[in-house]
Fold each of these.
Amino acid sequence: MRRRTFDGLMATAGLVLAAVLLVAGGLLSFAHTFVSDQVREQLVAQKIFFPPAGEAIADPAIKPYLSQYAGQQLTTGPQAKAYADHFIAVHIKEMSGDRSYSELSAASRAAPNDTELAGLVNTVFKGETLRGLLLNAYAFDTMGRIALYASFAAFIGAGAMLFLALLGFAHRRRTDPAAELGFHRTPVAANA
């Protein structure tokens, strides 16, 4: 194979790969924007606010995690995780005696006339449901951030491939048209 042909093929493949990476970077950037907007829009619609600084977040199981958000509206994935894990979960644990919804529900079914336990089961169910929804918002926000970083990598890769493809085309122009690739086999002498 002629060296110029090989250089042309490799440089063209580099251009194609650069184009693919540009498209991937654009799609990943769009995914980041879409996910971030959706998470923010859905969280804002819930109108959840962190308690103001003071007694509500004085508990040592809450304060280190929520002090930075005191009084703010919950609008981001990291805020959703902090609220779910360090506000809702702490209160559910306190009110349920560290029993899970499943344990409380089984106890309630075993004592169908215990209205106080039935009310606790209902409250814990609602709390765990909200907690799960907030943690899903956090998960989607994290996926959006990963898409953003992946888009940066794709754009950098596209730039590198474009640069290498241009170097390949420049090398092709300087190569002697008659030059062959240096993949010649040399005969191996047989042992006599």
Amino acid sequence: MSRQTIITLNTNGPGLTEFTEQAAYFVQQAHVQMGLLTVFVRHTSCSLLIQENADPDVQRDLHQFFHRLVPPGDDPSMRWLSHTAEGPDDMPAHIKAALTQTHLSIPVDNGSMLLGTWQGLYLFEHRSRPHRRQIVLHLN
């Protein structure tokens, strides 16, 4: 039996927002002993990550790495961009989303996600301002 829900996350601008607890609660409430949780973000300027959730320096370093890899559209190195109508953060956000993931698959056993000890589920916001993001959780 499949189950599905949509959760909404409010971001504070660029960076990682953890939603491991919301996904774990959904899996627990589904009463599925074994299956596969698919997580899908319904947007093109943010992405999903499974990442360490113990040391916040990991999240800061990831954010800084992607900022250096793909600077804002008004940076001189980004003059080649054509898609600029939605602001200097939009096309770089699309590029970052293309380099990461818009969906994840997590095995479920005994009613729990089989994440590693330090793994958490994150929405990676790539835009400069806060957004409301929708994530689909589908358990099969």
Amino acid sequence: MDFRGRELWIGIGIVAAVLAVLAGILGFAIGRGHGGAARPLVCLDPGHGGRDTGARENGVAEKDVNLDIALRAKQLLEAMGYRVIMTRENDTYVSLAQRCAIANQAGATVFVSIHNNARPPDAAGTTTYHNFNSPNGERLATYIQWGVVARIKRPDRGVKEKNLYVLRNSAMPAALLEGVFLTDATDARLIAQAQFRQKMAEGVAAGARDYLNSR
């Protein structure tokens, strides 16, 4: 190889090294916000899935609407600049232990489980749950509840404590939304509409954002 050939390969090597460094910097920056702090990571947990259909009432399968709402919320949160992981992104079965492990191993900042309710048949509206003795979980649940109720305008059934597996086994503040009652004819008719599910997703995203901003 002559001198010019060696110069060319040296130049190519330098360019490749610079590009690699820039790619590393970019990859690091993607996970970081202003001031170098890691951007919050939201874990969205669409309830049920696969062989576990959840409630199936008035022609609506809970597992399907849960997933649709979560996917919509994911897009909204990412547009706000947050990182998002999901416990499932399609119609697959994921155990309760696996759901918590996904959030815990990723070091999620918050965990939001998305469900819809059933029974009693005369009940309607929205409830959000948090674990016992979890002030941060209660605040997260409150923001989620406010965000959803303000947008879907169904009866506000409040924020409540409940001993649920995913709430007590998540290492971060956790909330579980029960959006509406599929056993209520009006709630079921509404959640079958994409526009209504979008509003619910907007409420979830806004609630998570407001909690994260309040810390």
Amino acid sequence: MLEAALYSAGRPVGMENLKAVVRTKSDKVMLSMIRELDVRYKSRRSALEVKALPGNRAVMRLKPEFDATVKRFTNRPLLTSGPLRTLSYIAYHQPVEQVKVVEDRGSHIYSHLRRMEEMGLITRERINGRGYVIETTAYFSEYFGFGHDPMKSKIQLRQMFDELKIDKLDNGNIEETTSDVLADAFSDSPLSDSLDGFM
């Protein structure tokens, strides 16, 4: 059941959800099961691994050494270019007020924000009873290979933008061609096949 849950999720899953699936209340039993499943994958030299992650979560994923090899077989990106532009804007400016994101990216991004929150890529925290402040999550950092410190992530993003010759991010007005390059940079590998049409 643990293997089935992790495989079908295709993303990190909280321990509480996994404990419900395998019918245990013990953190110790849950961690033991995760380790045992990973040992089984290692013993058969699988391309997959099962890992406990910070934030009380676990994931089944492709081993990092296979990423470059199988990249050409991936058909669908994590997100389409529009949401990726929104996500990159948030990652660079975080913590950022939702009203500012909407102002710079347009009102069409509400659907982007809902979906990215459902995927665990961002959090939205209500401030003073009105409006939200948006930040990326640890899962965003893990998936895209950024550090967990938002300031370090910003430095890494700035380095990526410099390498990609992106120089119009500071006020949110990313040029169309630049945005496409940035979207390509973020969409190297897929997370889910259920994202078609998510613009």
